[in-house]
Amino acid sequence: MLGLSLAIRKYDYTWSYKPVPQATSVPPTPRPTPYLVRRFWGYVHKLLVKFSYHYYCRWNGKQFLGQIHQLPFGLILKWSDGTRLEEALTMQVARAADLPVPRVICYGEHPDTPHAPVSILMTRMPGQVLFEELWDWYLPEQKATIISELKIYLDAIRSWPSPWLPPTRICAISGGSIRSIRVPNKQVGPCQEEKDFNKHLLEPAWRNPNRSLEWYNKQTAQAAELHSKSHRIVFTHGDLTPWNILVHEGHVTAILDWEAAGWYPEYWEFTTAWRYTPTGNWWYEIVKELTGGRYLEERVGDLAVRTLTSDAITGW
User: Fold this and answer.
1) Least packed by Cβ within 10 Å: which of 49, 133, 177, 233?
2) How many other C-beta atoms lie within 10 A of the C-beta of residue 60?
3) Please, what's the b/e burial string for 156-166 (b: 16 or more CB within 10 A of its CB; e: otherwise)?
4) Phi and psi, residue 244, nearest 5°
5) How many CA atoms lie within 13 Å of 271's alpha carbon, on the beta-carbon side?
């Protein structure tokens, strides 16, 4: 017991994870904790931020990060511009489904900071960010294992039926709007149908006077081709990037940052993962394997939407 007590006080202590999801259906979404309880935890979290800055990081000789606050006992406090109540609820559901997700200890409400209204206290997960140099270091069989595990996790959440009606509804796990840096005003929905979602995406589209009419017509045609198709609505992480995936010894140990999660058109997970990635890049090839070669046409249309609206959506 003494050894465990000393271990969990270490700066780099991490809690264990389950490597393979077991739940075959979406676990029930927990009811949010009462508002006054969230206000209480919000006050406590403010004190924890001060403790992390003035004491804990200095004691351990670590840099203080403005939105991810390091704490003892293998804990992290996330308080960022993108943190919302829906992220905490999604993490709880994903954890209940046995995905490698931090355990939510509590979440606080901050009405005095509307740009960052919620903070989440969670467990620190093991592993390193999946960066290119680490990927190159892995053996082929380890790479195959990581891709296989990612596919298992994505297939699991994509099979979750939405409890919200109609079944074509695009929304967060709470049934409400989705927050994503990929959409106008960083918020969308809930949308009753995919066409409503598409309309919202193209609202800021404009013709750049520095581009030719031929170029504009081509981009418009590619976007229209994407939006003319009907897609299944599936649960989606919404920000699947290498820096949101932790790996250790050839296994996926955590999937982080669920703030943009919700029910989206089926291609959205992968075109979002591709959004910064040129063809042939190492991450492009990983995502292509995850798709089984699908959604390449959707990628073209999605890039066209991005190009037509890039000045309005800085997070693309």
Assistant:
1) 133
2) 12
3) bbeebebebee
4) -105, 10
5) 21
Q: Cβ contacts of residue 219 below 8 Å, gap of 6+? A: 304, 307, 308
User: Kindly report the CA angle at 183 between 227 and 88, in degrees rounded to 5?
Assistant: 120
Give the count of alpha carbons within 13 A of 84, CB side only: 19
Dihedral sign for Cα atoms in the order 182, 185, 190, 193: negative
d(CA 196, CA 201): 9
- Between CA 126 and CA 63 the distance in angstroms is 19
What stretch of H or E contains 194? Answer: helix 194-202
CA distance 184 to 300: 19
Q: Is the pTM of this model over 0.85?
A: yes
Within 13 Å, how many C-alpha atoms sit on residue 26's CB side?
A: 21
d(CA 240, CA 5): 35
- Distant-in-sequence, close-in-space partners of 155: CB < 8 Å, separation ≥ 6: none
Question: Length of the chain in residues, anyone?
Answer: 316
Whether 301 and 222 have beta carbons less than 8 Å apart is answered as yes
Report pLDDT digits (tens) over 205-246: 877 777 888 888 999 999 999 999 999 999 999 999 999 999
The CA R_g of the chain, rounded to the nearest whole Å, is: 20
Contact predicate 298/271, CB 8 Å: yes
Measured in degrees and rounded to the nearest 5, phi and psi for residue 174 equal -80, -5
pLDDT digits (tens, 9 = 90+) for 144-201: 999 999 999 999 999 999 999 999 999 999 999 999 988 888 899 899 999 999 999 9
Whole-angstrom distance, CA of residue 269 vs CA of residue 261 = 10
How many Cβ atoms sit within 10 Å of the Cβ of residue 182?
Answer: 23
Burial profile 105-130: b = 16 or more Cβ within 10 angstroms, e = fewer:
ebbbbbeeeeebbbbbbbbbbbbeeb
